[in-house]
Each structure stands twice: as C-alpha cells, then as structure tokens.
Amino acid sequence: MIVTLGLLLLSGLVAGLVASRLGLPRVAAYVLAGMVFSPRLLGGVLHVSVGPWSEPLTTVALGFIAYLIGGSMTISQVRRSGPAILGATLGGSLGPILMVVATVLLISPEIPGLSVGQLALVLGVIASTTAPAATLAVLHQCRARGPVAKTLLGVVALDDAVGIVLFSLMLVAITGKEQGEAVGQAVVSVAGALLLGAVSAQLLATLGHRIRGVSLRLSLILGSILLVVGAAEALRVSSLLASMALGFGARFLARTTGDRVISPVEDLEETVFVVFFTVAGAHFEPSVFTDHTGLIAAYVGARLVGKIGGAALGTRLVGAPKTVVRWLGPGLIPQAGVAVGLALTLVHHPVFAEASTVVLNVVLATTVVNELIGPVSTRFALQRAGEVRTPRERV
Amino acid sequence: MTVGQWMTQHPGRAVTVHREAELDEVVERMLEQAGVRDVYVVAGRTILGHISHRKIVHLLLAEHRREHTRRQIMERIAGGAAQDFMDPHFASARPEEELDNVLDRMLEHDVEDLPVLDDHKLLVGTIGLTTVLQAKAGQKL
To answer: What is the pLDDT of residue A267?
Structure first.
C-alpha cells in the first residue's frame, strides 16, 4: 500500500510538471500517471493495486477538501458577493444537474447494480462542480478584469460547496432508500452531520485560539478532520457534510479571516487532488470507455448546455448585466478534483459496488475532456465579453 | 526598562483606520508613513483588529497571483471594509511590562509596530521594531 501510494504520488507529480511545461492541463497528466498503474496496464505486471486501503484514504481526503470549502467563506462574504454571483451559482449548479439527469434518463444506459434514475442523479450532481484552479489560470493568463471575470471567480469559489451539499443529500437519499430507511432517518443523518461538525468546530476554535505555532495548528486541524470523518462514519451520518460544517463553523467561531484554522492546511489541497486523480486513474477500465462512449459524450454535452443555460437563467433572474448573462456560462466548463473525489467515494460504497467502476471511469473521462475544452471555452467567453486586457492595459 | 519608560523616550503612533474604511483608504494610510507595516482598525481609541502589510499587498495585488485558495478567491470577490479584512486576534503590550518580554512577542507575531494598551484596553502608543533596532545598534538599550 505504502509503495503504491508513493509511486502514484511521485509519478503524478512528475507527469504534472511535464504537462505544465508543455502547456497541457496537469489534471490529465495526473490521471494518465494513475492509469499507468491500473491492473490492465503496468499495475498487473508489477502487482501494484489500489486495494481496500484507498477507501479510508479517499474518505479522509474528501473530508479534508470539504473542510477547506466550508472554511473558505463566511456568511457576510456570501452576502457581499452580490446577487449576480449567487444567482449564477444556483443556476450554474442546478442547470447541469437537470440537463444531465434528463439526458441520462433519455438514453437509459444499462449499468449493472444501479437503476437509471440513480445513475442520472449521481452523474447529475457530480456535473454541478467546477474547477477553480483551471478557471483562475485562464483569468490570470488573460489578465481578465470585468463583471464576467468577477462573477466567474465567485461562482467557482461557491459552486463546489453547493455540489458537496447536494451530493451528500443525494447519497443519503439513495443509500437510505436502498437500505429501507425512512425519510426521517435521512433527515437525522443530515442533522447529525451538521451537529457533529458544529460541536467539533467549537472545540477546534477554542483550541486553535490557544495554540500559537502554525505547525501545532496543522496537527490540530488534521486531527480534528480525522476525528470528525471517523465519528461521522461510526455514527452513520454524512462525513462530507460534517467536515464542511467543521470548516465553516471553526472559522466562524474562531472569529478569524481564516489565518488560524484554515490557512495552515490550504497548501495540502493540491496534494490531495494528486491523490484523487492518480488513485482514480489506477481504477482505469478501458472497457467502460468503449462500452459507454455515448454516455460519456451525453454527459459532456448535457453538462455544457446545462452550465451555459443555467448560468444565463440564474443571472437573468437577478438582473445581472447582459454581458454576464451571455458569457458567464461558457466560462464554467472546467471540472476537476471535487468531481473525481466525489466519484471515488462511491467505489467502496456497498450500494454502488457493481456500478462504481463505470461511474468513476465516466467521470474520469469527462473530467479530462472538460479540462481540455474548459480553458478554451473560458478564454473564448472572456474575449467575447471584452474583458481580456492587452499588455498595454495591464498596469 | 518597561514599555512605559521606552514610550516616553521613543514615542510612537499607531497607524489606524476606522472599521468602515475601504481598502483604498487603508492602503493610503499605510503609505503615508515610510516603513509602516501594521495598520490597526479602531472604533474611537479601542483597537478592534490588525491588518498586516502582507495582507494588504495580497488583497491589492490579488489579480497578479496565478494561484488562489478558495478562501482567497472569496476575499477577492467579496471586498468589504477594514473590519472584514482585519484579524481580531492581535498582539499588544501594557506600559508596565518589561520591554524584553514584549520584543519576544513582536518577533513571534511578526509585528513591526506593536500597540500599547492601557488598563481600559485603549491605545496609548506603539513600540516600533525599527526604533528598537536603531537603539540596539547605537547601544542605547
């Protein structure tokens, strides 16, 4: 296990560095590095496999990302961000969910162990997430400035939070129904997660106030995330929601801009994404790509239409400027870490035992496609909105 | 030497802004005096929080940074007043404290201008690290 993880991390890192040098998306390189160690390729030869050990690893890693997302915002910041960003976030999240759900229901692919409705919901919710890093890279390259650029930034900062909340609710609904649980138990699962996160946040904020050294705070935060994720699993409440509530609550209760309870662990996000992509890549199953090409294409197309349409509708309803209504959607196409992380959590889930390979490989393929077309689409939208600045304008 | 005695010999004034001040005003106040790296957010003479030079630079030049954390993105787009950017947890000193103990605190918190507060937690002055360094260099301490 340890050797495999080391191999995956280092090969992902090297592949990512090479890709950056060549001007290619790092995400695709991470995935390719993981694919090399999949059972059908080098993994089979070297007897390297991503076994049961990946379950706790990905669960904790996603809990960590949820913590960072929860701690990235305050209520007053969300309020101040303005109606255009809030409208676009809701529209840009719900649009692709509706479109992907409708499209999957329409084409009705046969996936063993999962009903079409469940598959549609899973892929739909995953489709709502975006990729802040890819969007930021384009904005930086273009030195973009204007209402579209600002709204775009706001949406990519917020919509993963919406995606994680919806994914948690969807998971509670699907697994609860499968296991014959009543709606009331689902509500308890969600409320319990929020309560667990809130109580742990109080402890984290209190201890964080007393601990001065950054390195000690790092241990405190990582320990708190591990504790919350573990307790959530034991109590059978959503570990994702609990972790998000932990991050949000800790920042709120510590009365800080995030320096004390969030920033000590922020630098670890990229490492977590390397783990996600390489581990996901190691689950590569070529037959999914050949057998479900239609589903992959349908997902990419439906998400594209849903993002563009949803963002346009959301911004129009809140009276955003015309240029934002028209050009925001095409800027929201990149999709990366959170989507793959969410799909990875399904791998060891009993309800998704049979179908998880298909879901993960579909999300993996569509993520690579979206990471390739996304930056091009974002640049195009910014250019058409007239927000790309020439070198002379870049003061 | 106590902080109070030091302040009598080396009076220093903190750079302060009102809690509702916009970022532009915070920058303006910071740049008014050469070498100032700490701005304190106040309501009257009560200090509410601290904004470091580094924080101001990061906020002001955010668009020049290739990579942001999600938290930094929210800070960039949400904007706000001084009270939204400040850290309410800040280091301070009291006039009766020994200067040597306070210097350790300044180095630990990476603060150039440490506010000195009286019994009612009202601002009475600052200790400037540069002034301390000048005194040390001149063997006056």
So the answer is: 85
Q: For residue A326, what is the domain's CATH number?
A: 1.20.1530.20
**CA dist., res. A133 & res. A276, Å (int):** 15
CA–CA dist A377, A333 (Å, integer): 7
Chain-centroid distance of CA B26 in Å reads 12
Mean pLDDT, rounded, for A65-84? 90
Shortest distance between the Cα of A161 and any Cα of chain B, in A, equals 11
Superfamily of domain B3-137: CBS-domain (3.10.580.10)
Residues of B with CB under 8 A from a CB of A: 55, 63, 65-71, 73-80, 84-89, 108
**End-to-end alpha carbon distance in chain A:** 50
3-state secondary structure of B127: strand
In this complex, do B74 and A81 lie within 8 Å of one another by their Cβ atoms?
yes
Q: Is the Cβ–Cβ distance between A29 and A12 less than 8 Å?
A: yes
> Contact A266/B69, CB-based, under 8 Å?
yes
Q: How many independent structural domains does chain A possess?
A: 1
Residue with tokens 């409208």: A87
Q: Which amino acid is at A247?
A: G
Q: Nearest 10 degrees: CA dihedral of A271, A275, A277, A282?
A: 150
- Over residues A302-352, the pLDDT tens digits come to 999 999 999 999 999 999 999 999 999 999 998 888 898 899 888 878 888
A373–chain B nearest CA distance, Å: 20
User: Which has the closest alpha carbon to B103: B89, B114, B88, B116?
Assistant: B114
A chain contacts of residue B86, beta-carbon cutoff 8 Å: 257
Q: How many CB pairs under 8 A join A and B?
A: 81
Of B63, B78, B88, the CB nearest to A77: B78
Nearest CA in chain B to A265: B69
Name residue A223's amino acid.
G
Decide if A390 is inside a domain: no
Single-letter residue type at A90: L
Separation CA A189–CA A172 (nearest Å):
7
Every domain of chain B and the residues it spans: 3-137
Domain housing A236:
2-385
pTM for this model (two decimals): 0.86
